[in-house]
Amino acid sequence: MMRSLYSGVSGLKAHQTKMDVIGNNIANVNTVGYKSQNVTFSDLFYQTTQTATGANEITGTGGQNAKQIGLGTQLNSISVNITGEGGTQATGNGFDIKINGSSFFIVQQGGTNLFTKAGNFTTDAYGNLVTQSGAYVMGYTAARNEQGDFILQTDQLRPISAYGPEYMTTAPAQTENAEFTGNINPSDEEFTDAGSGQITRLINVYDNLGNLYSVQVAVTRTSSTEFELQTTGKVFSGNEEVTADELTASGGVTLKFDPQTGIITGDKTFGVTLTGSSAAPFVKDITVDVSQLTSYGSNTTIDSARGIDGVGAGKPVGNMTSVGIDSSGNMVAAYDNGDNVIIGQIAVATFTNPSGLEKAGNNLFAATLNSGEFNGIGSTINSLGEDMSTGVIEMSNVDLASEFTDMIVTQRGFQANSRVITTSDSMIEELLSLKR
User: Fold this and answer.
1) Contact 406, 18 (CB under 8 A)
2) I need a labelling partner for 376 at 20 to 30 A (CA). Which of 37, 57, 139, 409 fits?
3) Global pTM?
């Protein structure tokens, strides 16, 4: 009877622990990235009143099984359903991210690397990407090289920054190429004696500091099939003409057209050189393409553009207009000069035995001896064959139907074990009443 009492007590304790886990699962049914837990029991140990014996040919007796009395149950495991994916909830927030796969976000809190599936991130006062509890989201950040371009550093993990001051602008680039397109009709009024004899156009160019200038170019007819295209020396900044002492332009070409086809036959490019004074010291050479000009009988329409097929157009200083995260975890910033730059990449971690991770609270996990070691640098998610979704988060993977069923079974188990105790107590009471 005493054994049954202690067995009943062990059953109560075990079922109470299981109910505690069930209660925690249900409490976290709407917790972002929560992974449910499950409890299993095992029998405790046994009192052997008779060991097993084998058959004895001498005495002519057969073998007997052991006689053992169990002494209750014990907690065998509290396992985490780490691989079960929670539901997807759309938020529309660009910093809410869901991992489509088995890897984990890497975060740093108090100098310690921890791991999470909860991707409901935000930014702090310094522009760093952080969890709701303030842990830094770790990954690979970009740094400027000597040319001013951002290069991703993958040598170590660093806190990802979305709005760091170093990322608020991008470097300018000077214009290297330009082009003239359109048509030049030698019979147009501009080229007759009644006209001025020439047409002027402007080529917009950027210098190496991102300042925009306009170089004036004149088109003068020399014959029915030839035109002189030359810079006038005038350079404008906005609507103001820059003095020749500060900045001047030179360069030109003779345009020759086939009288039968109207297609250019001579030089198809020429160079324009901008020379600055001591107050703005630079010399810049620009290659101008004129191969698309024609000499047809239609109206004269001459247009200029920076770059040749978009190459070498130059650009001003870029100011950040937006930032977002793509499916590879890249943090991409957009700028008002047309730049789109990867300023960081969120890293992820994988483990040999993710079920061996230890819950650390605040939706975080810590590596243990049984989870496998973290390599300290992480991986890019696309290298693992996985990806990320933005504007959504992974919710809890708690299955309420299963939890309620387990709750009923656990309550009945607790109730049955309590009956063992009360029944054993009644038996002891009967025993004590024998001497009345």
Assistant:
1) yes
2) 37
3) 0.82
Neighbours of 167 (CB within 10 A): 22
pLDDT of residue 282: 59
Cα–Cα dist 229/252, whole Å: 5
Q: What is the pLDDT of residues 28-53, one digit of tens each?
A: 999 999 999 999 999 988 888 888 88
Q: Can you tell me the distance from the alpha carbon of 232 to that of 80, in angstroms, rounded to the nearest whole number?
A: 78
List, in sequence order, the alpha helices (H) in 314-370: none
Q: Which amino acid is at 420?
A: V
* 191 CB burial (10 A radius; 0-12, 13-18, 19+): buried
pLDDT at residue 196, as a whole number: 62
* Euclidean distance between CA atoms 118 and 397, whole angstroms: 12
Question: What per-residue confidence (pLDDT) applies to 436?
Answer: 66
Tokens representing 352 are 């040999």
> Measured between alpha carbons, how far is 331 from 191 in angstroms, rounded to an integer?
55
Q: Do the beta carbons of residue 218 and residue 230 sit within 8 Å?
A: yes
Which ranges of 172-292 does DSSP label H, i.e. alpha helix?
none
Cβ proximity of 414 and 19 under 8 Å: yes
Instruction: Give phi and psi for 239, each to the nearest 5.
Output: -95, 0
> Long-range contact list for 377-380, CB < 8 A, 24+ apart?
377/154, 377/155, 377/156, 377/157, 377/347, 378/106, 378/138, 378/139, 378/157, 378/347, 378/348, 378/349, 379/103, 379/347, 379/348, 379/349, 379/350, 380/140, 380/328, 380/329, 380/345, 380/347, 380/348
CB contact at 8 A, 387 and 97: no
The CA radius of gyration of the chain, in Å to the nearest whole number, is: 40
Residue 141 to residue 144: CA distance in whole angstroms: 10
The mean per-residue pLDDT over the stretch 82-107 comes to: 95
Determine the Cα–Cα distance for residues 399 and 406; give it in Å rounded to an integer. Answer: 11
Residues facing residue 392 across a β-bridge: 90
3-class SS of residue 357 = coil
Residue type, 62: G
Give dist(CA 179, CA 232) in Å, integer.
17
Distances (CA, A) of 121 to 32, 36, 48, 98, 193: 11, 22, 58, 10, 72
Q: Write the CB contacts of 401 (distance below 8 Å, at least 6 apart in sequence).
A: none
Please give the pLDDT value at position 256: 95
Cβ–Cβ under 8 Å, residues 68 and 310: no
What are the structure tokens assigned to 288, written together? 């101008």
